[in-house]
């Protein structure tokens, strides 16, 4: 049994703009014929401060999911890691308060540290 699959056709980029500066900053933006958009910008923060220099990049992208939903995602990446935001991304359940008896025990432990014994 043989199955013939159509090869994916390349998707045209209909708009593209890139600006890269000698100081390391950049801006990139493009849009494809199938409606995908992408934009990203990067900077070097605290230039010249040896222990404080850090790259920071923020951007966004959007596309249409197979079910027709428009997906939008934004991001920020820097010395603290990366964060992503989008209505389609899962979120953690709300945190529950610490039970009273456990909190009381934790408070007692913090107030009564064990002395080092040799």
Automatic annotation (TrEMBL):
The keyword Chloroplast does not apply. It comes from the Eukaryota. Residues 46-58 have a biased composition (Basic and acidic residues). One of its GO terms (cellular component) is chitin-based extracellular matrix. Coiled coil: none annotated. InterPro entries: Cuticle_Struct_Prot (IPR050468), Insect_cuticle (IPR000618). Keywords: Cuticle. Residues 46-65 are annotated as: Disordered. PROSITE patterns: CHIT_BIND_RR_2 (PS51155). One of its GO terms (molecular function) is structural constituent of chitin-based larval cuticle. Pfam families: Chitin_bind_4. This is Endocuticle structural glycoprotein SgAbd-2. It comes from Apis cerana cerana.
